[in-house]
Amino acid sequence: MSTTDNESEHGLTEFGYSQSLERSIGKFASFAAGVSYISILTGTFQLFYFGFGLGGPVYWWSWPMVFVGQLCVALCFAELAGRYPVAGSVYNWSKRLAGPTVSWLAGWMMFTASVVTLAAVVLAYQVTLPQLWSGFQLVGDGTGDTDFGYSAVIWGAILILFTTLVNAFGVKLMARINSTGVFIELIAAVLLVIILGINIVHPPSILFDTKDLGAGQPGGYFGVFLVAAIASAYVMYGFDTASSLGEETVDPRKTAPTAILRAVIASFVIGGLILLFGILAAPNLDDPELGKTTGGLQLIVLQALGGPLGKVFLVCIVVAITVCSLAVHTAGIRLMFAMARDNALPAGARLAKIDPKRKTPVIPAILIGVVAVLILAVNIGTPAIFTAVTSVAVIMIYVAYLLVTIPMLVKRFRGEYPGPRTDRRYFSLGRLGLPINIVAVLWGAAMALNLAWPRVEVYGEGVLKWIAFLFIGAIALVGLLWFRLRGRHHLGTLPEHMAKQMGEAP
C-alpha cells in the first residue's frame, strides 16, 4: 500500500497529489514564513520616506486602515488554508472556488507578482546599506541622478543570487535561515519600539497635523492621503506564504490558518508602534530628509538613538530585508511548482521536477532568480524605480487575492460555500464569513484601483505614469491568450505527481 496514513492525514491524496516535497516545517517556521514575507522592518523602513514625504505625520492612520482591510482577506485565507493545505495557495484555492480560467489567471498573476515583488524587495538594500557605511554606495557618491538606481540594482542582484542558492539547496536550509532571521527581526523590532518610545519628543496630537500638504491638490488632503497609503499597503500582504508551504508543513490544517493570522496581527501591532513612535521621536518633523530615500525612518533611528546604537538596528533591518527576499522567492517557487504539477505552465514536467537529494524544485528557483534580475536591469535607468516596481508588484498581489475572494463570495451567495462538509476541528468564520468576505472584496478592489491610479508622485512622468495598467494588462492578456489557445487543453496532474491508489505499486 503506497498511500500512507501521513499522506491521508495531511489531505494530499484527497486532492490527487502524492507527497513529493519534504514535510519538515514546524509551527514557528510556518509563522516565520508569513512574517518574513510581510517583513515589518523591511516594509516600514523601505517606504516610510514615501508615505511621510507625501502625507506627513497623518500618514500613520493609513496603517490601521490597511490592517482592517487585509485582516478580512487574511481571515478568508485562513479558512481556505485549513481546507486546502496544498502548495501554491492562491492558485489551488481559486481552482476549487472557480473555473479553470479564473484559477489559472489567479495563479499566473500571483506568480508574476511574486517575481516582480522579489525585484522590488531586494531594492531595499540600497535604502539602508549606504546609511550604515558610505562605502556601500557602489556607484558614485549617491548624489547623481542615476547613482541611487544603479547601486540599488547591483545590490539587488547580489541578494537574488543568495536567495536562489539557498532555495535551490533545500527547504530545511531555507527554513533555518528564515526562522533565525525572523527571530532577530522580532527581537529588534520590539527593542526598537521600546527605545523609540523612551525617546518620544512630540505629543500624539501631531498625528492630526496635515501641515497643509493637501493645499491645491485634487481632493485636498484626502487625495494626498490615498497616495501616502501606498506605503502601508506595500507592507501587509504575503501572509498566504504560510499556506503555500502547506505540503512541507507538519499538521498544516491547523498550523497554516493560525500562522496566517498571527503574522498579520503581529505585523500590525509591532509595525504600527514602530511607525507611531518613530514619528513621535523624530527630532525635527520638518526635516526635508525624512521624505527622501536617503533619509526616511532610518534617519530618525540614527538621530534619536545615536550613531552606534542606531546602526545596530540598521544591521537588523538588513537581516529583515534578506529573509523577506528569501520568503518571497520561496513563495514564487512553490506557486510555479503547483501550477507546473498540473501541467498549467509550458514545460510543466521540467518545472515540477523535484531534486531527489534536496527534495525541492531547483529549476523554478533559478528561473525566478534570473527573471527578477532582468526586471532590475530593465529598470536600471528609471529614477522612479522604487515606487514604480513596488506599486506594480502590490497591485498584482491584490488582483490575485481578488481572484480568490470574489469566487469565494459568489459561492457564499449561492450557498455552495462552506458547504455541508464542515470539520469543526479546523478554522471557520461561521456566520461572520459572509460580511467579512464582502469587506475583503470591496477593500481589495478599492485598494487595487487606488494603487494603479496614474500619479506622477508614484510612477513618474510620461508613459511611465500608466505602467501599472500597461504592464498588468499585458501580463494578463499574454497569459490568457496562451492559456485559452493552448494551455487549457493540457491541464491535468502529471503522472509522476499523482496520488497512488490503494494497493497500487509505488
Automatic annotation (TrEMBL):
Record InterPro entries: AA/rel_permease1 (IPR002293)
A Pfam family hit: AA_permease_2
Keywords recorded for this protein, A-Z: Membrane, Transmembrane, Transmembrane helix, Transport
Transmembrane intervals: 28-52, 58-81, 102-128, 148-170, 182-201, 221-239, 260-282, 312-340, 361-378, 384-410, 431-451, 463-483
Major place of residence: membrane
The keyword Transmembrane is assigned to this record: yes
Membrane topology: Multi-pass membrane protein
Official protein name in the record: Amino acid permease
Source organism of the structure: Pseudonocardia ailaonensis
